[in-house]
């Protein structure tokens, strides 16, 4: 059987199979050697993800080779603003993320868990495109607060001994990242931003021994 790579996360994962998405690029990259399984849940934070984790993983079936865990943008919603119901305190976020990693490893000890930090926020872009019917004019999440959750994600990875992709920092290494690597809403990745994340995921998988060179090709190739 082909190895499974499961993508578990919020809207950054749910939307990853759209045209130009990092999940779609991953499926194309491994099109003859691994199956990419999408488990993305728009709007979810780690509190809700932890509650549904067993049900989500029951649906996966056999042991995956790797699972990406990509949460934090919704947890970082400010506690006193429009999307306050999504907010999760920083300490609880860390506890939830740790519990998600532990649960996956208890179920499938050989599965590689890869954490992904939330991407950065372009405050000005987000303010121009508020959520729902929010007319307050106030930011309901910021790049600074999201950065705190990115750092917390890295802490969990280091304490758990699992790899982490710091996409919050990586995106901000590029000039004009706010408009070139984030989409119209200032929160989700653009096609270029998705490409960077795809490349980072491929790098981490390769470090763990999963690549086009190590995965067998499904059935012989035809050359004409």
TrEMBL record:
GO molecular function: hydrolase activity, acting on ester bonds
Keyword Hydrolase: yes
Keywords assigned by UniProt, alphabetized: Hydrolase
InterPro entries: GDSL (IPR001087), Iah1-like (IPR045136), SGNH_hydro_sf (IPR036514)
Keyword Protein biosynthesis: no
CDD domains: Isoamyl_acetate_hydrolase_like
PANTHER family the UniProt entry points to: ISOAMYL ACETATE-HYDROLYZING ESTERASE 1, ISOAMYL ACETATE-HYDROLYZING ESTERASE 1 HOMOLOG
Family classification: Belongs to the 'GDSL' lipolytic enzyme family.
Name of the molecule in the record: GDSL esterase/lipase
